[in-house]
Design a protein that fits this description.
single chain; 397 residues; alpha+beta; Glutaredoxin; five-stranded mixed β-sheet; disulfide bond; Redoxin; signal; cytochrome c-type biogenesis
């Protein structure tokens, strides 16, 4: 019975999606209440609509918040609540996603309520897709609850600074087990709900973790209804899966042209015949900056043996001028002038390199052979031995 209700609810949402693409006064309205709220807070909703990141924020001191907006179709958003320091007015950030939950924004009335400090158990009512999302959350309740419990232990260990390395590893392993259980349940849900925006969001999350073969992900996507596949979020997912497949180890790396730090265009395919190490980083990224001394060592060791490093700056500021300034300052400060640099923010709408190479975390380093084929991916700033071994195996030193 639930499946039939979810099916009809989702079909209604698909129809409403098509309607909101034409001029309309329809909008969403979020009414929220934090029971037992204490102190001043900032409440934020973040979501993407047609490629644009949208932030809504409300500063409150009575536990009541309100948002209004309009979406082109049902879209998943992040709802986050943080305390504000009463003296400085600065945000007191929570660790991880402890102060965050997810909801579906539809052009209708949406109500949110939760107790102070318990946003994960928020009661959210809204449109038909939110109703289906609530059913999905019940479907994964057991492993999701266990995962939250383990994450709380992990965060408590960080806060107390008493977490032993072996305990950290054990918690990570247990969390990984629960994530796998959630993933398996999500896949079952996707297979059984092919007309669902919730399924699109779940498949996108699974693809982001890169734990499943891309052909399996494509098969699930291709089995979805045409209405879902041709919606904005469906087309976005299709593009993400296409990029993911193109950036798999063994494939020729996607080609691109970007303006370099010297002002000249750099085309990746022009480096064929050389080994290439693509370094995705940002001036804002601490682990990226910490990895640069090792990158200097790599450059010194392998440059004369045919290795070209191409560092791809990925800045967050909306001002291109500020992105350029932060990027160039960091290159100089970190002593990175001895290899090639491009800024992803140049012509980002034409070539968004993190998307094209399915980069989900920073820093990420991608190693190419002389034919331009991807031979290795190294994610994160630690475990340099793994990257060193890949370079040694490829170049022979």
């Amino acid at each position: 019975m639930i499946k039939r209700l979810a099916f009809f609810a989702t079909m209604l949402s698909l129809a409403s999606c098509a309607q909101t693409k034409s001029p309309s006064d329809t909008k969403f309205s979020v009414e929220g209440k934090i029971e037992g709220a204490q102190g001043k807070k900032i409440v934020q909703i973040m979501y993407f609509d047609e490629g644009e990141r949208i932030y809504l924020a409300d500063t409150i001191d009575d536990g009541i918040f309100h948002f209004e907006g309009k979406v082109t179709c049902p879209l998943k958003g992040n709802l986050r609540v943080n305390d504000l320091d009463p003296e400085t007015g600065r945000i007191k950030m929570t660790i991880g996603d402890a102060g965050m939950t997810q909801l579906y924004l539809e052009n209708t009335a949406i109500n949110v309520s939760f107790k102070e400090g318990d946003i994960k158990n928020a009661l959210i009512t809204g449109g038909p897709v939110q109703s289906e999302f609530n059913e999905y959350n019940k479907f994964i309740e057991e492993p999701a609850s266990k995962q939250r419990e383990l994450m709380e232990k992990l965060y408590a260990g960080y806060r107390s600074k008493n977490l032993k390395p072996e305990d950290f590893q054990a918690l990570q392993a247990e969390i990984g087990t629960q994530v796998e259980k959630i993933t398996d349940l999500s896949i079952n849900y996707i297979i059984e709900h092919t007309d669902s925006y919730v399924s699109v969001g779940l498949l996108e999350e699974i693809a982001r973790r890169e734990g499943k073969p891309v052909d399996e992900l494509f098969a699930m996507f291709n089995n979805m209804s045409e209405a879902v596949k041709t919606s904005h979020v469906g087309e976005k997912l299709n593009q993400s899966l296409t990029y993911l497949k193109a950036s798999q180890i063994g494939n020729v790396a996607p080609d691109f042209t970007k303006k370099s730090i010297t002002g000249e265009d750099l085309t990746l395919s022009s480096l064929r015949g050389k080994y290439v190490l693509l370094d995705f980083w940002g001036s804002w990224c601490g682990p990226c900056r910490a990895s640069h001394p090792h990158l200097r060592e790599i450059n010194e060791k392998y440059k004369s043996h045919g290795l070209e490093i191409v560092s791809i700056g990925c800045e967050k500021n909306r001002s291109l001028e500020k992105c350029e300034s932060s990027w160039k300052t960091a290159v100089e400060k970190d002593g990175m002038q001895d290899w090639k640099h491009v800024l992803n923010n140049y012509d980002k709408d034409k070539f968004d390199l993190p998307s094209m190479f399915s980069v989900k975390a920073y820093p990420t380093k991608i190693l190419l052979d002389k034919d331009g084929k991807i031979v290795a991916k190294h994610i994160g700033g630690g475990n340099n031995e793994e990257l060193d071994q890949k370079l040694k195996d490829l170049i022979g030193l």
